Amino acid sequence: MGLVQTIKFKYSEKAKAIELIKSFSSLYEVNKSDLLWTIYSEAFEPFKIEIGIEDYGFYTHRSGNYFKCFGELIEAISGQFGKIMIEDI
């Protein structure tokens, strides 16, 4: 069980959104499946954030102790792409 939200922002190149996700590999584990990117940690405070790249930004599903990483993700998105809007689904 986890939380599902969209993070809406404007980007012109999908590659830039992918690079943003990949940049988290220096701090956490980052994997890609067929449809989703996953940022996760199985260490002291395990968590998982699944990210789908959509036309509007990111579709996210998260569980565990994700608070620190999710905050870093929000800061990275707004720092690179500007204004964002987060909506619960």
Task: Describe how the helices and strands are arranged.
Elements: E1 3-8, H1 14-22, E2 29-32, E3 37-41, E4 47-54, E5 57-64, H2 67-81, E6 85-88
Antiparallel strand pairs: 1-5, 1-6, 2-3, 3-4, 4-5
Q: What would you note in describing this structure?
A:
The chain is of the alpha+beta class and 89 residues long. It has a single domain, classed as TATA-Binding Protein (2-Layer Sandwich). It is 27% helix and 39% strand. It has helices at 14-22, 67-81; strands spanning 3-8, 29-32, 37-41, 47-54, 57-64, 85-88. It has a 6-stranded antiparallel β-sheet, covered by helices on one side. It starts with a strand and ends with a strand.
Condensed summary:
The protein is α+β, with helices and mostly antiparallel strands and 89 residues long. The protein has helices at 14-22, 67-81, and strands at residues 3-8, 29-32, 37-41, 47-54, 57-64, 85-88.
- Broad CATH class: Alpha Beta
* Structural class estimated from helices and strands: alpha+beta
For the residues shown, what is the average pLDDT?
Answer: 95
Number of strands: 6
Shape: globular
CATH fold name, please? TATA-Binding Protein
Span from first to last CA?
A: 14 Å
- In spatial order, strands of the major sheet run 2-3-4-5-1-6
Strand content: 35-45%
| Major β-sheet annotation | 6 strands, antiparallel
Structurally, the number of domains stands at 1
Q: Gyration radius, to the nearest Å?
A: 12 Å
Helix content class: 25-40%
Number of helices: 2
